[in-house]
Amino acid sequence: MTQIELIHQQAVENTKTKIMDDIDNFLGESETLPEFKEYLDKRSTYITQIWLNVWLTKSTNDFSKRDKKAFLSERGYVVEGVDRKLINKLFRNEMREYKPFNTKEWIKSAIDELSWETQYDRARKKFLKKAEEDQLLEKKAGIKEKIFQVAHTVLSDFQESAYLRIRHEMAKELKKILDENQKFEDIDTYMLEERLTVIGSFNPDDYRTLADFFDELTGQIHQTASWGRFYFEYETYQYHFENSVLKYFTRIAAEEVMHHLEQHILSEYEEVFKDKLSVTETKRIINDLAEVYLDGLIFKLQEEYVTDLLALAEIEFEEREHHEIYERDLAERERRKAEELAELERKREEEARMLEDIFGREYNPSLRRNVRYILHIGETNTGKTHHALETMKAARTGLYLAPLRLLALEVYEKLNAEGVPCSLKTGEEEKPVEGANHISCTVEMFHEKEFYEVVVIDESQMIADKDRGFSWFKAITKANAEEVHIIGSKNIKGMMMDLLDDGVAEIYEYTRDIPLQVENKEFSLKDTKKGDALVCFSRKQVLENASKLQNNGRQVSMIYGSMPPETRKKQIERFIKGETSVVVATDAIGMGLNLPIRRIVFLENEKFDGTRRRRLTSQEIKQIAGRAGRKGIYNVGRVAFTSDISLMTKLLEKEDKPVETFSIAPTSVIFERFQKYHRSLAVFFELWDKFESPKGTNKASLSEERELYEYIRDTEIEARLPMMELYGFLHLPFSSKEPVLIEQWLETIRAIVSDAELPEPPVKTDSLEELELSYKAIGLHLLFLYKLGRKTEAVYWERVRTGLSDDVHEFLKSEVKNYKKKCRHCGRGIHVDSPYQICDSCYSARNRKRVDNKDRWR
Description:
The chain is built from 30 helices and 24 strands. The chain has 858 residues and is α/β, with parallel strands linked by helices. The chain is extended.
C-alpha cells in the first residue's frame, strides 16, 4: 500500500468515527427516539463537509514538504523556489478531488432501523449519566467557590495575626538552622554530588537582616548526611525557609477559614462530597489564594533583624504579647534605618564635597584675562599653521605645541633653518639650542608656569580626543602668554568661542585656494601615477601595497603610525625631492604633513578603530583628502576611491558636525588634593569613575593606566613609590599593547624601586618588525631617563635610536620590494599579489577538515 493510500484509509476511518460520535450526541440529546431520516435531514451539512475537513487536514499535515513537491511535480507544477504556503495551497486543491468518500451512502449502509433503536438506548443512557456527573461536578465547584469566597474575606483580616505566628515559627526555624548546621564552602548547584568542606559554625552577629543572611548563603546548601559523606539536595536555605513559610501559612490559614465557615456550608460540603471537610482539603481549595499573600509575608520576614528573631524563638507564643514585641522591634528597626539612611546621606554628601574638591573645580576654565586669543580656523592645507608660526617667529619668546613628535621636530628644524634659534622638547628627547628663546614641543610637555610672548597650539580639534584631549584644554585655558594662537578645523570654532568667551581678540578663517575634485572612476592599483598618495589603514597594508608598486617599477615613500619619526621625515624628503613618485600611507598622512600630492587615493573606506571595523567619518575623509593639491604645483587636488564613490563623495562634501565636548583627565593638582583624603591609586580610580563629568566634557577612560596598574597593584612597587610618581609611570606614553614593552616597563620600575641599574632596552635588528620594536623600546627607556633627570645617558640612547631609524629607512628603501605577505595561520610567506590571507596548504587543510566534519555528521 502506498503512502497516500494509507493516509487516505486512515482519513476514512477517522471520518467514520466522527460521524458515529455525532450520531451518539444527536440521539443522546433527544428525549424520544427520532427517525433516522430526521438525523439525515438535520445533520446533512455536517455529514457532507466532514470528509473534506478530515481529509484535507490529515493530508496537509501528514505529507512532508518534499512529498508534496514530488506529488505536484508529477502533475506538471513548477515547485522549485516556491513559497511553502503556496505549495500547501496547491497541494490542498489537488487533494479536494482525490478519491472522495461518500459519507451519506456509508451511513445508510452502516445503520438499519433495528440498530438505530439500540443505538438510541445506549446513547441516551450515556447522555443522562454524563449530565448527572456534570451536575455533581457543578455542585462540587459551587461549594468550593463558597469556601474560597469565605477564605478571601477571612484571610484579608487574618494577615496581622498570621504574620505574628509565622514570625514566631520561622524564628524557631532560623535558630534551628544556626544551631544544628555548619557553614560549608560554596559549591556549584549544577553538580550532582560533592564532598562539602566545613568552614565553621554560623555566627548570628555576621548578619543584620534575614535578607543579609540569605544573600550571604546563596551558595550554601541545605545538607543531609549519609555514610560519612555529605550530599546536597537541590534546596538552598532560602528555598527551604520560604517553603516552610508557605506550608505553615496554608495550614493556619486553612484552620482559620474552617473556623469561620457557617454550618450550612459544612453540611452542604458533606452532602455533596460524602465526607467531612478536612484541613488538608481546605488547604488545597485556598492554596492559590494563600500564595497571593506569600510574597508580602516573605518580604516582611526578610526585613526582620536576625537578633530580633533569635530572641523571639525563646518566647512561647501568646498573640497579645508577641504583638507588643513586634511593635517594639518594628519601631526600633525603623529608628535604626532612619539613622543608617541619615549616615548614608551624610557620607554621600561628604563624598560629593570630596569629589567636587578633588575634581570639580579643576575643570572650570580659569582663563588668564590678560591673554589675547587668536583663532586660525579652516580646512586642511590652507596655511593656518604657517601664518601662526610667522607671528611666533617675530616674538621675543615663543612656544609651539604639536600633536605629534614628528610635527614638533619639523617646526624645530624649520625655525632653526630660518635663523630663529629653537629648542626641541618631547617626552623622549630634548635638543637644547644655545641662545634659543623659542621651544617646539608636544602638547603634553606644556607647563603653565612658564611665560612666553606667543604660544601656538596646533590641531586644537584634538581637544575632543577621549584620551589626549585634556592636554589641549589645559594648554588653551592655562597658557601663560600675551598671545595664544589656536589652530583648528572649522568645526571647532563654536566650542572655542564658548570656551574663551570674550578672550577672543581676532579670528582668521581660511579656505582652500585649490579645489578638490573627486574622480568618477573606481581606482585600481594599476592606475597609480606620479604624485599620488595611496591611503590604507594598517601598517601591513602599507607594506603590501608598497611592495606591489615597487615590483612594478615605481619608487615609493611610506608613512605609517609606528614608523620612527626620523624615518618618516626621510621618507617624506625622498618624495619631495622626487626620488620617489608615490606615497603609500595610513591616515597618519592627515595630521599636519604638507606634501606636493597630486591625488589622494582611498584604498579602503573602512578602518579598525581599536574596537571594530567601521566606515570612515566625514571629518576623517576631509582631513586626509585635504592633503591633495599644492599651491604653485597643482591647480586641483584630486581624490579617488576604490568603491562607493557616490557615498564617499557625499561624506567628503558633508557639513562638519560641530565639536561640542572636550575631554578631561587627571592633573597633578588633582592628585595633590586627592592625597588629603586617600593614598591609594585603586581608590583614585574608583572616585574617578564616580565623578560626574561636567556638561560639555568627557572623562578620559584611563584604560591603559588601569591595565598597567593591575600589574603592580598591592605589590612592593606600589608600597614604596609615592602615589604621584607611580601614576607618572603609569601615564608614560608608550605602546602598552606590546608584551615586550610591558615587561620592560615592569623591570625598569622594579629597578627604580630597588635602587638598581636600569635594564637596557632589548635591541634586535634582524627584521623590520624587530627594528621598529627596538626603536619603541629605546623610546620607553628614554621616557624613564628624562623623567629621572638622567640626560647624559639619554644622549647616548638617542644616538642609538637614530641609528635604528636609519636602518628602518634603508630597509624600506631597498627591501620592501621583497616584503612577503604571511599566512595568518602558519606564518609562511604568500606572494604579495595573492588576494587571500592564508597560504594554499592551510586553505587545502581547512577544506579537508570541512569535508571530514560533513561526513562525520551525515
